[in-house]
Amino acid sequence: MRARLALLVLILGVGFAFYWRSTEKQNPGHAGPGQEDASPESTIDSEEPFRDSPEMRVSLTNSSRNSFRFACSQPFEIYLEEASSPQQRMEPFPDEVTVEATTNPLGIQIGAETFPGKLIRLKTSASPDFWVNDHQYRGEIWFHRLDSGRLLAVNHVPLEEYLGSVVDSEMPATFPDNARKAQAIIARTYALYRRQETADEPYFDLYASTLSQQYLGFQYRTNGGRRLAGESKISRRLARETAGQVCLYEGKLFSTYYSAVCGGKTTEGSILFPDAVPLLQPVPCEYCAAAELYKWERRWSIRQASDYLSREFSRRGIRFGELTKCENVSPEPGPAARFRFEDGRISQTLTGQQIRNLFPDLPSPTFKLELTDEQLHFLGAGHGHGVGLCQWGARGMAIEEKTVEDILNHYYPGVTITPRQD
Ligand SMILES: [Zn+2]
Asked: How far apart are CA 330 and CA 61, in angstroms?
């Protein structure tokens, strides 16, 4: 079941579903978070709790794990499976403990305590307090023991609390408010769309990564041990000011794809995503011209390029030698653009998307190719898949004082922006 969900999310995921490769874990093709030091007190204030906010279930890792690291500074309660009253009140774990599955009895161990069954739910009145691995989260943490003996850690968190972090995780704090409000609305739409699609799934609706959309939580630690904020007073205000607003197409939630930089024109959604609604049509966008990856170049030696190409062609049962000719077959670059490669003997065709999956470190599937005496030269545009809202373009539009509605209507032409109706 979980594998099916993972596949579904891979197919539907907003960020770069079809492009997910290990090289993109650090470089997901989204505009990314602002790098501000954490100041946890700054977001625990006298805000009213979010009302009428459905609960999201967010898997904190991209796959199940043998164990998780856990810590918290306040006492908390553990509930077993579906129980409505707590099993045990726990003392804090200010130092990290390990959470893992046990076999005798079949259960889950946290620190020195073992609990029987397939699920423990951790609740605290001191939220945000729970640390899982290197992130601290608001809401509850559920540890599921799978039949494989591995564990899933799932954060159960109200939608609007979740969005308070997604806005900062997905878009730099330096981007103008209207761009970040548009981000909040499409992130909310995507989350609710996923929740609707995963209603029958047992464990979770979304990943905390760009497999769905980036969610860093309340704060997190970098590899170097630095603590950074995963949300801010401002990102929470932006979520609050847009609370409940979603995008609809023909009266329905849809997968509001977005990427960091379109490079001049967005990409037709149906080329890449089976569930893309018709309004995900290419639109011109010069608003992202200030982005570093608006235009880019990459060069590979003919030997290295021939090596990558021959790996792909050998999967087709074809031996490919040294590249001697390269032709841009399609007039327009993009994931569906076709390129013909020759080694002096045979000729083979690949699309922009296939080439992006083949060569490491290509920021987007939108490029033209030139073959010189020594190199294969990529002349590219944009960062990410290019479908839907362009995050740097939203920034450019907001700087030109366009409204949130202007931004959403530009990238999702004909969209309806409306209060959520469950
Ligand atoms: Zn753009």
From this structure: 39
Q: In angstroms, what is the span from residue 294 Cα to ligand 1's centroid?
A: 8
With contact defined as beta carbons under 8 Å apart, do 205 and 195 qualify?
yes
Q: How far is the CA of 266 from the centre of ligand 1 (A)?
A: 7
Alpha helices in 198-318, H assignment, sequence order: 233-241, 269-272, 302-315
User: Is residue 14's pLDDT more than 90?
Assistant: no
Residue 376 CA to ligand 1 centre (angstroms): 26
- For 295, the token pair is 């235009």
Mean of the pLDDT values across residues 140-164? 97
CA of 285 to the centre of ligand 1 (A): 5
Number of Cβ within 10 Å of residue 225's Cβ equals 7
Q: Residue 77 is encoded by which pair of tokens?
A: 């309660």
- CA dihedral defined by 184, 37, 223, 155, rounded to 10 degrees? -40
Helix spans in 113-244 (H): 159-170, 177-197, 233-241
Interval between CA 184 and ligand 1 midpoint (Å): 18
Q: What is the mean pLDDT of the chain?
A: 90
Give distance in angstroms: CA of 30 to centre of ligand 1: 12
Write out pLDDT tens, residues 224-249. Answer: 999 999 999 999 999 999 999 999 99
pLDDT at 32 over 80: no
Q: What is the pLDDT of residue 34?
A: 52
